[in-house]
Each structure stands twice: as structure tokens, then as C-alpha cells.
Amino acid sequence: MEDNSVKIRRMKELIPILDKAAAAYYQGDGEIMSNFEYDAFYDELDALEKETGVVLSGSPTVKVGYEVASSLPKKDHPSPMLSLAKTKDRGELRSWLGSQRGLLSWKLDGLTVVLTYEGGELKEALTRGDGTTGEVITQNALTFVNVPHRIAYKGELVLRGEAVISYADFESINALIEDDTQKYKNPRNLCSGSVRQLDPSVTKSRKVRFIAFALVSAKDESVEFDFKNSNENKYIFLKDQGFDVVEYKVTDEGHIEDDIADFSRRIEANPYPSDGLVLLYDDIAYGVSLGRTAKAPKNAMAFKWQDETALTHLKYVEWSPSRTGLINPVAVFDPVELEGTTVTRASVHNISIVEELKLGIGDEISVYKANMIIPQIAANLTLSGNLPIPDKCPACGADTKIVSENDTKTLVCTNPACPAKQIKSFELYCSKEAMNIEGLSEQTLEKFIARGFIREFDDLYHLERHADEIKQMEGFGEKSMKKLLDAVEKSRDTQLSRFLCAIGIPGIGVTNAKNISRHFDGDFEALVAADEEELKAIDKVGDVMAADIVSFFSDEGRLDMIRRVLNELRLASEAAIATDTAISGLTFVVTGSLNTYANRNELKAYIESMGGKVTGSVTAKTDFLINNDTTSNSSKNKTAKQLNIPIISEEEFRERFT
Questions:
Q1: Taking a C-beta distance cutoff of 8 angstroms, is the pair 629, 651 a contact?
Q2: Quick check: is 204 catalytic?
Q3: Residue 269 contacts by C-beta under 8 Å, 6 or more apart in sequence?
Q4: CATH assignment of 494-572?
Q5: Are 522 and 573 in contact (CB under 8 A)?
């Protein structure tokens, strides 16, 4: 079993390497490895699949076509899928376990799915449905990120698991949706809709994962697998077939409460939503002997998080404008301790909820953390209902209006030019490749814009006017305020190329900005005065880009704003790129911490000034990987070794190239 798991781990490393190379080749980005290298990796993966009998989802050795369904067919489960008995009492869970050995695992909050394999192939996938009848989602399950298309076991295998979408993927998917009213409320809702799509390509785009939590049956007339009366051995068996199995701890009566505490401490680090834990008897025969009730099996019990509530008083509601124009209410209350952390804020989401809770300033409210993570208002004990709804947008001062859609009332800003709707432009301005103002994250920018501190770029250089208010905000204080003002001051000394990246000219990235800046010797007014013909004479500036630049600066209002910002800056000349150095023409990747350079950006700037190139990932075109931990097993080191690319330390780089 151990040998198989090592091979499967290697397969999981090879698939993204091959996938990235194929994407670069077929999508016109150029080859990142030779055909010889690709074939070697492909053959290694193919051999491992034959040795293990496992073919993982996404393997380039399998080409799958997905059929769009007009509706999802229904099918009865062979036996009813029952719900587990639940408790919130740790002592009750300990007593239930008694002298037995147990397996304590996450109770994942997604959509339960049943998979059936025959002859090593995925034959069928069903949703839980109502427990008796489920929906057939076989084509969709084949698109899950980690569901094996083929396994080593050739008998009939039936297993259950939870289809889930990670918090990180949920945030990424939501970030692509500009309309806040259309964003998904939580990963579970998104997952449920994704799994039950009629078009499998939509399911695939949602990055659904399957986490196995139960082996229902394994029937093979030719081979009898002995699980030695242990549910843990079933988990190990599933892992060796290539399945991701729910994280679990082996526990007993003496350790169960400590193990519950450990899970509760780690819930915020868990990548997938969880609404509790499951305790399963490890002894299979003992669990079966207990039978079941009409509603629940007796071999397992669910532990639901006890919602810890606290009473506090509403201080005020912060009305936070968003990029879509929605102005979202956030309740700010006297600090309370919940689940080991201090909580002072909770989203109220919309006007309808404000009205349902009958909120008013000074009201006594009960708050809790949903699933031990998200602060929520449970109830309002005062019910004063006197909370004023703002008639002006906090970010721009324009009129607001209440909009009702699908029986939900929301507050919106009526100004199409509201700075809150331009958050991405401010985020770009402050980014590392642009003005590099540390401490002004998207979240912080949204807060400052919502309070009216920032309306245009030049306002960033006068945040000291709002220092007293900022220092009172959550996450800020005297030290953080000084650090932010220092970062703003540092950004005043810059180059035209960075500024051109910052102001959002269409199509202008780092390289083009540097070429343009060098052509005009850092003279902004010369750039503004240039026509399309002069711009097209610059390296890598074509017809479309030249026209976009001229159009961008032809807007007098925008140009006036840009000149006001330039008055806040001190532009240095653009250094010429050296072309006859030892670095010229070489491509580097930098990873890990540095000792002599302040950060990776400083080293990157030096390499580029010497005619070299720095990229983010190791490919066949990389000449050197710079990593002070040359012997580590990081993914970049592994890829470099596979491609025979030298791994050098920072000291070696300085010896050879400076």
C-alpha cells in the first residue's frame, strides 16, 4: 500500500507539469519544454498508471468528452442514505464512544455524492437527493478535480463522499462576478449548483473536489479484500485507489475531547467548509451489530459545533460602498470574545435584514460565529428600529436609492463615476509592479474609499489628513499608520515606467512601460505630445497600442487628474538596460527567502537592468533557478532537477554574475 501511495503522489506531480506544457503548446503561448521532455514525463505517468491501475482526473493519457444533458435523470439508491444522529455535547460524544476505538473526522459542508466503479471504471455517480432517490451526475463527476477515472480494484466498488469547493476557489470564482447581487453566498451553495449542472463543462470550471468518507461495499468474486474489521483500513484502501479521503484522527475515550479541541482550533485553516465532526466506530462488526433507527445508523454520530453567543451593543453601522454600486451595511459593536477571538463587526448584508432585525444604534444584540468562522447577528433584544439609512454615498457624496429585487431591498449609489466602483484602478496603482505602496491592499482601499478618504489618485498622498480616524479603524494604530505614511512617502520617488503601469493605460505592462519611458527619456509631456507614428517606432508598440495611448491621453479630465498626481511625485531617469553582461539573454526564476538583497523585487530589478529576464515558473527555457535552499523538495526544485536546470544559491549568483 505504501508503495502505491508514493506512486500516486508522483502522478499528482506529473499531471500539472504535462497539463501546463500542453496548454502552452496548443494555446499559442510557445513551447515550455521539448517534445523529448514532454514524452519522457508522459511515459513516466503512463507507466505509473499501469503499475498502480489508477488513472487520476485530468490525466493527459485519457481524453474525455462530456455530453450536455437536457435534464438530470433520477435513480433510487440501493439502500436509503440515512442522516447521522447529532450532538453538541462533547461529554455525550465521549460516552457514546465508550471503550471503543473511533475515527474522528471533519463533517464537510458540501453535497454528498455516491460513486460506483465496475471493472476499474467509474460507472455511475449519484447525488444524495432525498436519501432514497438521487440525481445521476456521472458526466459531471468525471470533471471533478480529483475523481479517479480508473482505479486498480476491478470488482464493484461503491463509496460515498462529499463534493466540495474550497474557500480559495470560491473566492476566486466570486471575484470574477462584478455584480454583487449575483455573487454566491457560500461555497456549499456554489458547489450544489455546480454538481447538478446540465453542462459538465460548467461543473469543470468550478473546481469541484470529491472527499471520500465511506466505503459502502467492495465486491469481487475473484479477490476478497480483508479490511481486518477496521474502518481505518477501508480509508487506507481508498487512498491506494487514488481517492482523497477525509482528514481523520484515531481516538478513544481518553483523548476524544482533546481531539475535538484540536479540530476546532484548526477549522479556520481547513481549506473546505465544515459544519462539525463525525465520530465513527473503527470496529466494523461492532458498528453493524448495533443496527440503525428509522432515521440514522448507530455506528457513527455527528458532532455539531456549539454556537457560542455573546451579548453586546450596536455602536454604529458602517455603510460600505462596493465596486458594483451596492452600499453594504456592516454592524460595528462593542468587542466580545467568540471562539477564542475578539469580534467587533458583522455583515448585515442588505436593507431587508436591517429591517427584519429592527436595528438601532445602542441596541443590545446577540452575536455568534456561523460554523465558528463568520460573525453574524443572532437576534436583536431591543428592537428599536431607529437606524437611519444614508441618503448620500459615503464614498462620493452622490444620492443613494433603495432598490427592491426578488423581495430583497438593497441600497445603491447612483453615481456611475463613484470611486468605489473604480476599486480595481486604485488597486493597480498601489500594486508592486506599479507604485508599490505597501499596506494599501484591496480591502484597505475599499475601507478608505468607503469613508471618503480617497476619491482620486492624488488623495493617496494626503492620507495624513485622516490619520486620527484611520488610527481608530480596526487593524490600524499608531505604528501601522506611520508604516503606511512611510510607504506612501517612499512611493513618491519613482520612475515614469512605474507610473505608466499604475495609471491603467490599456495594454501597457511592465516591459512596454519601460520601453516607452526610455524612448522619451522619462519625459511625460513628450509622451503626451507624441502621435501614433512616433509611438509605433518604439519596440513592441503596434498600431492598436499606439492608438490606445493617444486616446487615453486625449481625455482632458483624465489628463488633468494625472498631472495632479505627477505633482506629488519625484521621477528619476529610467536606467538603460545593459546588453553585454554575463546575465544578458539569460532567464532566471527566484524563489525562497533572500539574504543580501532586500527582497525578490530588488534582485529582479538588478537582473533586468543587466539584460536578463525573471519569470515566475521553471520551464525548459529557464537558465537558472535561484534558491538558497538548493536541496529542498519544493515543486520548483523538483521541476528544475527534472529539466536539468542548475539550482544556485544567492551567494553563487553573486559570485558568477555581479
A1: no
A2: no
A3: none
A4: 1.10.150.20
A5: yes
Q: Residue 178: its pLDDT value, please?
A: 62
| Catalytic annotation, pick one of 75, 88, 107, 304 | 107
Q: Where are the alpha helices (DSSP H) in 98-208?
A: 138-141, 167-175, 187-195, 200-205
Quick one: 535 exposed, middle or buried, by C-beta within 10 A (0-12, 13-18, 19+)?
buried
Rounded-to-integer distance, Cα 409 and Cα 421, Å = 20
Provide the pLDDT confidence category of residue 177 given band limits of 50, 70 and 90.
Answer: confident
Q: To the nearest whole number, what is the mean pLDDT of the chain?
A: 86
What would the mean pLDDT of 7-28 be, rounded to a whole number? 74
**Residue 456 to residue 448: CA distance in whole angstroms:** 12
Q: What is 350-366 written as a DSSP string?
A: SHHHHHHHT--TT-EEE
Q: What is the CATH number of domain 587-657?
A: 3.40.50.10190
Whole-angstrom Cα distance, residue 312 to residue 173? 35
397 close to 434: Cβ distance less than 8 angstroms:
no
CA distances from 285 to 157, 231, 291 (A): 19, 10, 10
pLDDT at 30: 42
Domain 74-304 has CATH 3.30.559.10: no
Q: Give the pLDDT band (50/70/90) at residue 594.
A: confident
With respect to CATH, is domain 310-413 assigned 2.40.50.140? yes
* pLDDT for res 141: 95
pLDDT at 29: 38
Q: Tell me the helix, strand and coil percentages in the chain, rounded to 5.
A: 35, 25, 40
Exposed e or buried b for every residue in 193-213, given b needs 16+ CB within 10 A?
A: ebbebeebeebbebbbbbbbb
Least confident range of 205-219, 544-558, 580-594:
580-594
477 DSSP assignment: -
Boundaries of CATH 1.10.150.20 in the chain? 419-491, 494-572
- Which of the residue ranges 181-190, 236-245, 535-544, 620-629 would you say has the lowest mean pLDDT? 181-190
Alpha carbons 471 and 479: distance in angstroms, whole number? 9
Is the model's pLDDT at 56 over the cut of 80? Answer: yes
Host H or E run for residue 156: strand 156-164
What H or E segment, with its residue span, contains residue 502? helix 496-502
Q: Enter the pTM of the model.
A: 0.53
